[in-house]
Specification:
Largest sheet: none
Number of helices: 16
Strand content: under 5%
Order of helices and strands: HHHHHHHHHHHHHHHH
Oligomer: single chain
Number of strands: 0
């Protein structure tokens, strides 16, 4: 075990997060391409389990990263300047999230009107207004399988920063804990005593059923304000512990659409993130920091936005070409839309600390 890395008040670039983003988005892409290409139709059960199930795990990992990162940045702002500015937060958030997301939806509307992709206005509007996760399944794969996660995140960030400001850093830990347990209890009650056998996959995308995926990451970010806990975690989150956590996540993956399975995954995912942030010099930390993974991690939002179009609509003669075209489109989106708009957001609402480098996805 290497010497624990110090986590200072101005954290700057958080090591290994780009690598974890890359793992999350590639899990989603592989899952969707495998499903679209019917690669698992006649495959053994374990192949189906690994390929298709990886998409849900990737989403859970994204939730954990998002909750941990955004809360870390808000805590850093509070520590650096003495307050959290919700106005600046939302200006930066709008500039980061909306331009790529709305560009994709504009393209889908044009393709839909031209009859080139399945399209229904009510589902499109639910994606535009970020309540897709409360609409029933339907409306075509170009909107059905990924905009629900964006809806969950945007609904969450309408609530969580305000709670952090209202209760303060110290009491926010107890607020997050209360909300996590409340969601666990509600999820168990809803799936066992309200919906029962009628609970569907779409019900698991509701914010009241999956906010804990973000909240546990928020809790860990708050907990790491304790230097004693930080040192303890850095010491005991060894490679063996990480391996055990990964094994449990994989084994429980088949029960993602159960209260227990969802709880296990939402609780354990942030442990992986914390382990490598505190100990980036381990072999896993070094692996997550290799340049190709960091680059994919920076492209991860644009990759996630555009992957449905290339995974489920056959524009090119092979899935390999579709896969390569996806990366080309994501790079165009990142360098042409996402990155300039992020820079604009930080000019309009500059953060008081150095932590903006990771959010702005700038090279070190």
């Amino acid at each position: 075990m290497t010497k624990p890395e110090a986590v200072v008040k101005s954290v700057g670039y958080l090591p290994t997060l780009d690598g974890w983003r890359a793992c999350a988005v590639m899990a989603v892409i592989v899952s969707h391409f495998a499903y679209s290409a019917s690669l698992v139709q006649n495959a053994p059960h374990w192949v189906h389990y690994v390929l298709i199930g990886s998409g849900v795990k990737g989403v859970q990992l994204f939730f954990s990263i998002s909750g941990f990162l955004i809360t870390s940045r808000l805590i850093e702002e509070r520590n650096f300047s003495g307050r959290i500015s919700l106005k600046r937060f939302y200006v930066r958030r709008v500039c980061r999230i909306l331009p790529p997301a709305m560009t994709y939806l504009l393209v889908i509307a044009l393709l839909g009107v031209a009859g080139l992709v399945p399209f229904q206005w009510k589902y499109w509007l639910s994606a535009v207004c970020f309540f897709r996760n409360y609409m029933p399944v339907g409306g075509g794969t170009v909107l059905d399988i990924h905009y629900w996660t964006l809806s969950v995140e945007e609904q969450f960030y309408l609530i969580w920063p305000a709670l952090l400001v209202l209760f303060g850093i110290y009491r926010a830990k107890y607020t997050a804990s209360f909300l996590i347990f409340a969601i666990w209890i509600w999820r168990w009650i809803a799936s066992n005593h309200i919906w029962g056998a009628s609970v569907g996959q779409g019900d698991w995308s509701r914010s009241d059923m999956c906010f804990d995926g973000l909240l546990v990451g928020c809790f860990f970010a708050l907990a790491l304000e304790s230097s004693q806990l930080r040192k303890w975690l850095a010491k005991y989150l060894s490679v063996g512990v990480i391996a055990a956590v990964i094994l449990i996540i994989l084994v429980s993956g088949g029960r993602t659409y159960t209260p227990g399975g969802r709880t296990i995954q939402s609780t354990l995912m942030p442990i992986l993130i914390v382990a490598t942030i505190l100990n980036p010099k381990t072999w896993l930390g070094r692996l997550l920091e290799i340049p190709i993974l960091r680059w994919i991690g920076r492209l991860s939002y644009s990759l996630y936005i555009w992957q449905q179009l290339f995974a489920f609509q056959k524009f090119l003669p092979s899935y390999l070409l579709q896969f390569l075209a996806l990366f080309g489109m994501a790079a165009l989106s990142f360098y042409g839309i996402e990155k300039p708009m992020i820079r604009l957001g930080y000019r309009l609402a500059p953060p008081p600390s150095l932590g903006h480098r990771d959010l702005a996805a700038l090279p070190r």
